[in-house]
């Protein structure tokens, strides 16, 4: 279980997050909704290790990981998909995914796993293409696919629908459903709840750094 | 972890394997050509040409070492004159006190490790542009301060502007050692670049933050890369001072610092490109110097000014690209 205990974050005098607590089970999808600047992305950065909380603790399977580096958290089963995709631009799509598979598997097995992942998410036709030559929608799909390459138990998705057209939004949605079927726990930030309909089990509303409301999935 | 869809045909993996195989085939062909050339050159060239080729080989090793930081870590270092020059200086000082050349390689490796530590610490900063300038400034500061280094032995003063002497070694001996070292470095970097470990390094080059997300230990990669790069640059520097039997503050100079940056302007992102670029620069500088002393600096300046244009794919690719653009334009005008 991924558990946040009274996380607060302050940049100088600006309070970005205040006493945020939540927990995420494997196979569960939780939405984090709120306006711009409400602290959603900061919370994901704290969980992934890119930011340190001012106070509070992050637990992964009852282990305190608050002081762990990003790589260590990834090793323990946490993954992150950036809001603005950050591919390895000079590498091919296949190599982008393969680089993550190398964390858990030896050479041959990793190569097969990377191919499996590409096929699962229908990206095999792009395999040889350099990431720098992909469209915004394709980059987003690659970002999600790569976030699964380390075989995580929990994935943090920062605005997976941001800057996507209808067609790609549908593709990402399909991808997220597949991830849920794969029993991956997901924490997804979004501006609106509409896009979380159908697969989010709970939606936490964040306003001014605090959780203001929690909606159950059926309510969406 | 989880149930994946059943996949029967394995196409992507085999095409990737083919790609790696093709790349390695090229590396072995290039390696064989280089070996052949290095075997026949001593028998067909006179003393001066052999001396010049040896210099080209030494600079090529230096360029390959620099290229490792550039292509694996995405860090453009203008401070590789530090391991290069330090190795020369340290070995000369060790020789001054011991009068025994057996300690020279130890001094080179020590200089490499010390410089690697500096490069590693600087590479920890996320700011890649700052890395370029700081490495350059430290290198330049050492260049300015190195004439102040003087040592006294048995009443005589050594060092200063004059530098230090090293034991005279036959050109053919330096040639042999340098050629072997270049071939070994060429093969090592070529195979490493196309390996899966090399792939992990390239993730750091492209995006350090994203590399962490796929579990790559970025600091470890930086440490390894700095060590390999600095030690090989130091070995090249040691051979350089042995080649001249002398070392002076000039080994830390700006033109040494800029050399690999300019040498890789011609053909980018390949080991053979770095070697070809180094030889072009050494022979062109030699020719220009014969016309007028220090004229080669004009060539350096011109290439440096043009480098932003050329660096994306190298000068050769730039020319090919421009040619194809012109051809396309001609076709369009005809069609119009």
Break the fold down into its secondary structure elements and pairings.
The complex is a heterodimer of chains A (220) and B (336).
Chain A: E1 2-11, E2 14-24, E3 29-33, H1 40-48, E4 55-60, E5 63-64, H2 70-76, E6 78-81, H3 93-101, H4 107-120, H5 136-148, E7 154-157, H6 166-181, E8 185-190, E9 202-207, E10 210-216
Helix pairs in contact in A: 3-4, 3-5, 5-6
Chain B: H1 12-44, H2 47-73, H3 81-98, H4 104-123, H5 128-145, E1 150-153, E2 156-159, E3 164-165, H6 171-193, H7 196-206, H8 208-213, H9 218-244, E4 246-247, H10 254-263, H11 271-291, H12 296-310, H13 315-335
Antiparallel strand pairs in B: 1-2, 3-4
Tally of helical segments of chain B: 13
Beta strand % of chain B: under 5%
Structural class of chain B: mainly alpha
Strand order of the largest sheet of chain A: 6-7-8-3-9-10
CATH fold-level label of chain B: ABC transporter involved in vitamin B12 uptake, BtuC
Largest sheet of chain A: 6 strands, mixed
- What does the overall shape of chain B look like? globular
Shape of chain A: globular
- The structure class of chain A reads alpha/beta
CA-atom Rg of chain B in angstroms = 22 Å
How far from one another are the termini of chain A? 24 Å
Overall pLDDT score of chain B: 89
Report on the architecture of this protein.
The complex is a heterodimer of chains A (220) and B (336). Chain A is 31% helix and 28% strand. Chain A has 220 residues and is an alpha/beta fold. Chain A has a 6-stranded mixed β-sheet, with helices on both faces. In chain A, strands 2-1-4-5 form a 4-stranded antiparallel β-sheet, with helices on one face. In chain A, helix 6 links the parallel strand 7 and strand 8. Chain A starts with a strand and ends with a strand. Chain B has 336 residues and is mostly helical. Helix content of chain B is 74%, strand content 4%. In chain B, strand 1 (150-153) and strand 2 form a beta hairpin. The model of chain B is unreliable at 1-8 (pLDDT under 50). Chain A binds chain B through residues 48, 50, 69-71, 74-75, 79-80, 82, 86-92, 94-95, 98-100, 102-103, 107, 110-112, 114-120, 124, 127-128, 146-147, 149-151, 153, 182-184, and chain B through 1-5, 7, 10-13, 15-17, 19, 196, 199-200, 202-203, 205-207, 209-218.
């Amino acid at each position: 279980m991924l558990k946040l205990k009274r996380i607060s974050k302050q940049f100088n005098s600006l309070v970005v997050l205040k006493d945020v607590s939540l927990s995420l089970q494997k196979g569960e999808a939780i939405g984090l909704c709120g306006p711009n600047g409400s602290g959603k992305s900061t919370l994901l950065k704290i969980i992934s290790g890119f930011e340190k909380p001012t106070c509070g603790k992050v637990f992964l399977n009852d282990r305190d990981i608050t002081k762990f580096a990003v790589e260590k958290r990834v090793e323990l089963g946490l993954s992150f998909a950036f809001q603005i995709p950050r591919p390895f631009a000079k590498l091919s799509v296949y190599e982008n995914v393969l680089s993550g598979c190398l964390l858990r598997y030896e050479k041959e097995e990793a190569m097969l796993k990377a191919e499996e992942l590409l096929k699962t998410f229908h990206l095999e036709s792009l395999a040889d293409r350099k990431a720098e030559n992909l469209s915004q929608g394709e980059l987003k799909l690659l970002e999600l696919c790569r976030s699964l390459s380390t075989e995580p138990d929990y994935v943090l998705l920062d605005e997976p629908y941001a800057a996507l057209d209808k067609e790609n939004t549908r593709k990402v949605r399909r991808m997220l459903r597949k991830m849920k079927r794969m029993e991956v726990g997901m924490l997804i930030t979004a501006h609106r709840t509409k896009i979380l309909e159908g697969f989010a089990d709970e939606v936490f509303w964040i306003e001014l750094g605090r959780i203001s409301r929690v909606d159950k999935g059926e309510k969406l | 972890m989880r149930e994946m869809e059943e996949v029967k045909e394995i196409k992507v993996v085999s095409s990737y394997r083919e790609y790696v195989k093709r790349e390695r085939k090229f590396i072995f062909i290039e390696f064989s050509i280089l070996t052949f050339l290095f075997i026949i050159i001593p028998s067909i060239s006179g003393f001066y040409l052999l001396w010049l080729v040896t210099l080209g080989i030494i600079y090529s090793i230096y360029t390959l070492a620099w290229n490792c930081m550039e292509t694996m870590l995405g860090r453009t270092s203008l401070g590789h004159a530090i391991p290069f020059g330090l190795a020369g200086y340290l070995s000369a000082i060790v020789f001054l006190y011991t009068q025994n050349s057996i300690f020279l390689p130890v001094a080179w490796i020590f200089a490499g490790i010390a410089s690697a530590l500096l490069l590693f610490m600087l590479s920890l900063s996320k700011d890649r542009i700052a890395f370029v300038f700081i490495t350059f400034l430290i290198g330049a500061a050492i260049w300015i301060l190195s004439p102040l280094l003087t040592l006294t032995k048995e009443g005589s003063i050594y060092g200063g502007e004059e530098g230090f002497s090293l034991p005279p070694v036959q050109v053919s001996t330096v040639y042999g050692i340098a050629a072997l070292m270049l071939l070994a470095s060429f093969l090592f970097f070529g195979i490493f670049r196309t390996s899966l470990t090399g792939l992990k390094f390239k993730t750091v080059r492209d995006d350090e933050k994203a590399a962490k997300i796929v579990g790559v230990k970025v600091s470890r990669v930086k440490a390894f890369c700095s060590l390999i790069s600095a030690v090989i640059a130091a070995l090249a520097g040691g051979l350089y001072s042995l080649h001249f039997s002398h070392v002076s503050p000039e080994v830390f100079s700006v033109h040494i610092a800029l050399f690999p940056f300019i040498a890789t302007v011609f053909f980018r992102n390949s080991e053979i490109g770095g070697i070809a670029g180094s030889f072009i620069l050494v022979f062109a500088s030699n020719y220009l110097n014969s016309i007028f002393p220090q004229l080669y600096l004009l060539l350096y300046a011109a290439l440096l000014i043009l480098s932003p244009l050329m660096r994306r794919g190298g000068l050769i690719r730039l020319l090919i690209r421009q040619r194809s653009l012109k051809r396309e334009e001609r076709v369009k005008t005809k069609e119009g």
